[in-house]
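Fold this sequence, please.
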Amino acid sequence: MIEKLIAQIKEKQSPIVVGLDPNLKFVPEFIKQKAFAELGETLEGAALAFKEYNKGIIDAVADLVPAVKPQIAMYEQLGIPGLEVFKWTCDYAHEKGLVVIGDIKRGDIGSTSEMYAVGHIGKTVIGSNVVSAFDEDIVTVNPYLGSDGVLPFVKVCEEEKKGIFVLVKTSNPSSGEFQDREIDGRALYEHVAEKVVEWGSTTIDPETGYSEVGAVVGATYPEQGKILRKLMPKAYILVPGYGAQGGKGADLAYFFNDDGLGAIVNSSRGIIAAYKQEQYAHVGEEGYAEASRLAVLDMKEDLRQAIASR
């Protein structure tokens, strides 16, 4: 899967992933009114609004970005109707040729971890049938439980040629409460990075030189990102925290390798709710998808300049 992701990044010259994190306060009123008129102010009505909202954004940016990243909690808040839209979103993005990164942050042990992996990036055997459930291409994984929690995902990655991004240094302000703690004179996130290298050593793609086991490193911590890039030269880095959380292109130059590859940068609210920003407000609420497209184009240029400055 890393080969497909890199091919898309090269083709579109865009190391951007759009976070599809729908929230009713982001969904334009005209979409909500139509959905509620059909299904009421219900879980089903809200799910329909999310579906139409996501469709508009995917249609507007599919030719510009290599990947989208639906965050499963945003869909789980709507129960079963929300999960149905999560699945629909994954399938529709695939129809548009996009790589789908399921932001699920799962982390457990043994058979539980294995079933998370099977459900999201693997296949389930049902009698004589072998079927995929959510069928993302890559998912995020929480390593807090150690190898017992991560290796079941690696196994499925090897079998299905899928990928994972392991949380290493996250973008949130309190991440340092645990991740920056020193162990044997080094920050915990550095130890996790070394395990990412170990876990991914059997999944390196011979064409690209990159592993199917990548890392999540927040844009809000550029100095740590520079350290981690050196520790994990063959791991792709998923970079959250751009835009609404304060990260900007100038901070990210050293998240990339010398080949201009090695990182893909996520923006969620900054793109999907761009129509609410002053610089894109001229398109109006009904132009929310066009605002998303404009925000991607601006982000693309910002990152191009950052990579060129290395």
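The chain has a mean pLDDT of 95. The first helix runs from residue 2 to 12.
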